[in-house]
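Hi support team,

I'm opening this ticket because the web form for multi-chain structure prediction keeps timing out on my end. I have pasted the exact lines I submitted so you can reproduce it. The total is 1316 residues across four entries, so I didn't expect it to be a heavy job. Is there a limit I'm missing, or should I split the entries? Thanks in advance, R.K.
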Amino acid sequence: MGSNSFGTIFRITTWGESHGKAMGVVIDGCPAGLHLHEDEINRELALRAPGGSPYTSPRKEADLAEIYSGLFEGKTTGAPLSIIIKNQDSDSAPYHALKETLRPGHANFTYLEKYGLFDYRGGGRASARETVCRVAAGAVAKKLLAHFRITLSARIGDTLKEAALEAKEAHDSIGGIVELTTSDLPTGLGDPIYEKLSANLAKAIFSIPAVKGFEIGSGFASASMRGSAHNDPFTQVDGKIRTKTNHAGGILGGITTGMPLVLRVAFKPASSIKQEQESVTVNGEKTTLKFSEKARHDPCVAIRAVPVVEAMCALVLADHLLMNRLSKL
Amino acid sequence: MGSNSFGTIFRITTWGESHGKAMGVVIDGCPAGLHLHEDEINRELALRAPGGSPYTSPRKEADLAEIYSGLFEGKTTGAPLSIIIKNQDSDSAPYHALKETLRPGHANFTYLEKYGLFDYRGGGRASARETVCRVAAGAVAKKLLAHFRITLSARIGDTLKEAALEAKEAHDSIGGIVELTTSDLPTGLGDPIYEKLSANLAKAIFSIPAVKGFEIGSGFASASMRGSAHNDPFTQVDGKIRTKTNHAGGILGGITTGMPLVLRVAFKPASSIKQEQESVTVNGEKTTLKFSEKARHDPCVAIRAVPVVEAMCALVLADHLLMNRLSKL
Amino acid sequence: MGSNSFGTIFRITTWGESHGKAMGVVIDGCPAGLHLHEDEINRELALRAPGGSPYTSPRKEADLAEIYSGLFEGKTTGAPLSIIIKNQDSDSAPYHALKETLRPGHANFTYLEKYGLFDYRGGGRASARETVCRVAAGAVAKKLLAHFRITLSARIGDTLKEAALEAKEAHDSIGGIVELTTSDLPTGLGDPIYEKLSANLAKAIFSIPAVKGFEIGSGFASASMRGSAHNDPFTQVDGKIRTKTNHAGGILGGITTGMPLVLRVAFKPASSIKQEQESVTVNGEKTTLKFSEKARHDPCVAIRAVPVVEAMCALVLADHLLMNRLSKL
Amino acid sequence: MGSNSFGTIFRITTWGESHGKAMGVVIDGCPAGLHLHEDEINRELALRAPGGSPYTSPRKEADLAEIYSGLFEGKTTGAPLSIIIKNQDSDSAPYHALKETLRPGHANFTYLEKYGLFDYRGGGRASARETVCRVAAGAVAKKLLAHFRITLSARIGDTLKEAALEAKEAHDSIGGIVELTTSDLPTGLGDPIYEKLSANLAKAIFSIPAVKGFEIGSGFASASMRGSAHNDPFTQVDGKIRTKTNHAGGILGGITTGMPLVLRVAFKPASSIKQEQESVTVNGEKTTLKFSEKARHDPCVAIRAVPVVEAMCALVLADHLLMNRLSKL
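Hello R.K., no limit was hit. The queue was backed up. Here is the completed structure from your submission:
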């Protein structure tokens, strides 16, 4: 169990609420001997930071990760890495007014139904603030991947930024698509049947707030393709077996082919918008909801999600890289 | 670990190869007291059976499930249910000719890379034959859902059957999309953060062979929508809180809203086609691959996957239905 | 979850009731490439077989294991091994008379409390018959250990057999102690904190029916020892670091020292005896309980438990042997 | 996986080294709605604190737990509880001198073998300092147990304190036995086969540093008892089914009978003593080892382990209390 943990061997557990004291992540299962420095984590956090561009929320928070355990003389020891990021700049007052109102597109209704109570300040545990822990843990996973010469990179299309600015002016928000590709991967990553690399990537991505769709390689387009066009012919390149095309997106039968991984993620538009919206209270009475002009919200969560998508994929790859040590005698 | 297991509380473990003696599934964590009969499983297996229509593979196999344990006087006892389905009608000869050839779009290359050896007969463990176990286990999960008045139903579009026939005539295959919807769900199913209902559905679906894409509710379309249009306004209907629209597809923050679950799955075209294809041998030498005219392959895996999509969703829902007993004091 | 599974990487799931059709075990996580033959499993089962000596129950059952999956051309493939042992020679009639009576020292009361119903025939799922699956799986684990040159051996004291015969004559039963030692082990097996080798051995052993005590190395005797006598001095032997004594029993801080593992297990006397016993019915009414003269029960479960203790330890060692591949970069 | 986690539903993950910045524990799976205050945790930590008596180590450290997440308006929210205890008063200098020396009875050899490096300061991750996290988490588990009217209490024998003082004067250490009993428990706690309550207690207890033996109810004494004396007759008391005696120690077939749980734990003498000891260096060269007169070590770890034994048992009981919600329809 443990709904706040992710991964099997390289396993993270996150904690913290948006307006609590801090956010944190414990990484268990990182092999001993990995060189690591707090700065490497903080560089990744800076990429996720809000306030850096007109496309994202103006909340200013110097996210600084501190490693509390698991490191000795600059290397991981095999003991759990505890990384803590303090919360700052959180004014809970605007949320008090909304504590009785169900927010359309938001999780406060479902959390209340599940738990009977909800830390409504800033979205509490349901806030996208939690993703800071994923990026911090992903930075460690990337170090492990780099050690094995694997790199990955996510991006959005150029027109998305324009659409985000337009939406912002209209006091609205917009969805978006993030695409991720990797360098050539080692073959053999991913397990058969229920622990397919593709299945674990799908879970990792759908655990990110606001994700509504996920595809690998040819994805939804493959539904209208024929096998003769879709099958990637095998060939030999520089003594290695490769495929001529990569409709598979780097995975066959749940296991890596050695080709780059290619995937796409659809994000819905942010649910928090500065327009008046119909809703009901927790007791079912009609009401309207409107955020103040000063409220800080991202017009497009997809833009800020780019490093989160990278982090989640890095976590899955790190996990399967270790898992793959177990397949043969 | 356990790459052949799925689920946390209602947990299945499957075993068996396409051309081995039998396929089997062990279900652990089914509550005691559920009425169950082998016939209920066999009715579901009949829906999955090949040979029933021109759109699917002509392999004829009377899939009969036998319950070996966990049942006493017609009810589950809390002990593991072991369900076994014998394999019949398997001629391994055609596969011997292919044992040295990498099959485009197929898993034999990746399994060989991972394990160093491969039971190539009929696709071995990588065969879609394994899904018979999922459908058998899904039948038990559906019984549990029915006990709590939850139903689900998957389907393909009408034009897909035509496209499949055309592809078959052209000795080719075609992809397709399966859509699943449910009755209204209880609120509160799904856990936050990494065990979101959506994340576990994504994993469940991407563990099915040939899946390339998955979306919930508005899915990929949400990427070009604005928040003001996408947000589902809350309202009260018959004393219950509901949303007027259902772009969310029944899930907010990973937890059910009480509205129907809606999801879509993209399947690639089947990789086995009766055309000559370029490939290489396991040693990297150029070769070509052609299945005999008599080979039995589905022109469209999406059609036969309909009950598998249902089964996997039923398993996830049954699991979260039990998990939800743990959320409050 | 999965209360019928054991192990993390080398993971077994067992199913079956004493008087059901068969007993079975699925082994997931056995590395590919291990030579294995059904006969190797059946040799281990023969050691566990009842009826072979006056000290044990006369129930005659030719336990024959059949491997249903996971093996190809004499080697494991990385796919799950499904092993099935048919049940024979089971007459459920004597148990019908007892279905309303709580049996002292037996699990029928607690199962009824937990599940609300109980397959009382032969003890159902609670029967020691389940251990046949452990021995079968243990045989595979031993093959893996043998591949890495590890052997283990369990035994009882000589006087126990005499005591068992005396108890049998008195229509009674007797407890006993089983001791297990291994060859020198590789260093580094066992994880820190909660996955100590010692902790997992303790769990493995206490999962065997009728176990009441477990100790490693100096065990309970260490409670009255002083540190100066208990500490095992390190020394160098043939270029390897060893300890002069082995009060630790082969484990320090939960991780193997390279010395032999030494442990002892206390079994209670069998609860089924041929004397009249006081009890109550499931409704709490006073009653007495007496097994017929013909009933087949072991006077001393410790004697038959010897191969079960070996099997459980082999499973734990196999698991940690694989787990240890994950500790370093 | 996750060797620093314990429990299935009520699941803890601990982190921190003896001489690092802090120790911490994340509790995932505590139901929402439990009243909790930091003071309740700190009261338990005070019982574990060193320096409070002549029998224990004089290290003075005000262990103050701070709850960083998971609490809102005095109640748990269902989100993970993160509890952090700062480290103070740690002088690593004495350990530098020992960094090349293998310490008899201590884990530095095995950690070095496993990980290739070791944070030797104060025992690093292998230090009993980690148990502060168990006691903090155990305090939360006890609150949950109290909500269901379950209490537990551990103790040592009176003569152990005298023996500890004598050993201390002799610059030596002594082992000891801790016994734990509970109030009457609800019936039905514990799962069959591999998740027996007894098996999980055995694992919990053997995960505590320095434990060498564990027994439940009649324990090792049962090995020389006869069934007619050992079987606990069922009877009815105040409308409840109970047993007249409790050799079972509260558990039959791995599941609670409703009688009090009774268990005993054997601790070895502390390995750190102020006498000169033979050893070898990490390179296998002969050396001797002697702690300074000022070094702070417990002469008897069993005495300080009392609240740790309580905490681990509370964690297991809390876990099974929740798990038991899943057994029936």
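A quick check on our side: Chain C touches chain D through 110 residues (CB under 8 Å). Let us know if the file doesn't open in your viewer.
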